[in-house]
Fold this protein.
Amino acid sequence: MTATGTFTPRPGAAPLPRMIRAQAALETRMLLRNGEQLLLTVVIPTLLLVLFSAVDIIDTGVGRSVDFLAPGVLALAVMSTAFTGQAIATGFERRYGVLKRLAVSPLPRWGLMAAKTCAVLVTEVLQIVLLCAVAFALGWAPHGNPSAVVLLLILGTAAFSGLGLLMAGTLKAEATLAAANLVFLLLLVGGGVIVPLEKFPEAAQSVLGLLPISALSDGLRDVLQHGAGIPWSDLGILAVWAVLGLGAAARFFRWE
């Protein structure tokens, strides 16, 4: 004789790691299926790398333009995904009530943020692989400490993620869309990505050098182009931005 309830499913949420993995996979698929996001995170950095490496538009002050441009474009890819793309996507999820509904699911809010972070990291890995392949085809020959590169990319991701979530959680979706794209364009021009900071007035250089995109691009360039060791000053700037951005996002983020 079979006991009552033997074949009844046991109620309750799935284990937390499984929920985070499932949400991260969903976030990644949504990100990769979004044509506008792919344009921002993949197409634009790739075109900039190819165009400015093949055509002598800006004097970078080095023998080959690709040696200067590749680290800067890698930094741009991190910013486009962790800041611009995440800010816009999260802002509209907040507007349409997606975050409000997810907040009452068994997945905790920090688990949702962890899943979004995993999706950002997966996308960045794909970006970096593609951009490095293009750069190698253009004759790029990097050298330096891989651990320093990974540390720079992780801190850069944390800094831009905090700023993106802060923007998405405090502004309206339309304002986030406009502001995130505007910041992307301004930092593309003034963040040392394709234009060396030495081209700007000396007074502006000291200010621009404190931006997270400048610290990330300069740190990657010091390691990959010049073979420097651990760029502690650039890492320190990124760490400060990461702490301030993530702390402010945790404090002021509104879920609805």
Q: What stands out?
A: The chain has a mean pLDDT of 85.
